[in-house]
Amino acid sequence: MMRQVCMRCGMEREGLEVRCKRCGGPFKVEVEDIPFSKNLRENFPYIKNWISLGEWHTPMIRSNNVYFKLDFLNPTGSYKDRGSVTLISYLAERGIKQISEDSSGNAGASIAAYGSAAGMRVKIFVPSTARGNKLKQIEIYGAEVIKVEGSREDVSKAAENSSYYYASHVLQPQFRDGIRSLAYEIVSDLGWRSPDNVFLPTSAGTLLLGVFEGFRHMFNQGIISKIPKLIAVQTEQVMPLCSKIKGLKYTPPEKVTSIADALVSTSPFLLPEMEKIVKEYGDCIVVSDEEILNSWKELAKKGLLVEYSSATVYSAYKKINPEGTSVLVLTGSGLKVL
């Protein structure tokens, strides 16, 4: 039996509602009672029939004293496939045939791909200004793209108010829960030891929260002896979490123009949950566009072509150069931005 509870008031989810009926908060999957298994799929017992495209088990390579987790090698070119496979598989088992999502980036592409593979009709709502390879990728998977005038919040509202079921990568607990798999793989790749530091590009919060739940699950089950320091990385232009953690003055921009175009959540819904975790288990580092571009070029010379947003973690690592074993999660493929 899978329990899903509100992260803010503890109310249990009754069905497929997207927000808590009591406080409007987000739900999470309770994993404390799930016995840990080194057969990683077994850590998600609520999925019986996986809509798989060959996700997970991405390589982790070592360069000098740092490890790079190449999560951009997931099927659609980003770590988001870890969340999509669990969410879409879960919804398909419950007979959902039509879904909506709001994202002109990696999440939209991933949901479109897995939704199509499940035989669903998919509508992806995007800002009217959306352009580029990621938008083309969404369309190629067969999703209907609907452009919405107005703010990013207007796009979200349009998707949530659609006649299709709202398969939000931010609000749906099974999406965030699927990202637990990344923490399991990092520990497995290190011979079932926890690293000292894990660097994560941070925007809406699904990566940070999902990875934390994976490490906490292994810690509570006695698989690892410590939860690593989780280092969230944000840009100078979009740093709502770092401003909270560091006490920095921050005014959200009217339009995001940073080269790290996957990190665009200027006022993320999951900010309270992110702040709590980072204050207890990590840190938040701000990097500039110049630092990102330099790191992107350095990574390319190592043979790693990633999104600018992924290169943020290498900028942050060089900035603080922490002691111990560090894992840098490279989240998105550079082929999407060429």
Q: Sum up the overall morphology in one term.
A: globular
Mean pLDDT: 96
Q: Tell me the series of helices and strands, N- to C-terminal.
A: EEEEHEHEHEHEHHEHEHHEHHE
What is the beta-strand fraction? 15-25%
The total of helices stands at 11
Low-pLDDT stretches? none
Tell me the structural class.
alpha/beta
Characterize the biggest β-sheet: 6 strands, mixed
| Largest sheet, spatial ordering of strands | 3-4-12-9-10-11
Helix content: 25-40%
Radius of gyration, taken over Cα atoms and rounded to an integer in Å: 18 Å
Q: Separation of termini?
A: 45 Å
Task: Walk me through what this model shows.
The chain is α/β, with parallel strands linked by helices and 338 residues long. The protein is 35% helix and 17% strand. It has 11 helices and 12 strands. Strands 3-4-12-9-10-11 form a 6-stranded mixed β-sheet, sandwiched between helices. It starts with a strand and ends in an 8-residue tail after the last strand. The mean pLDDT is 96.
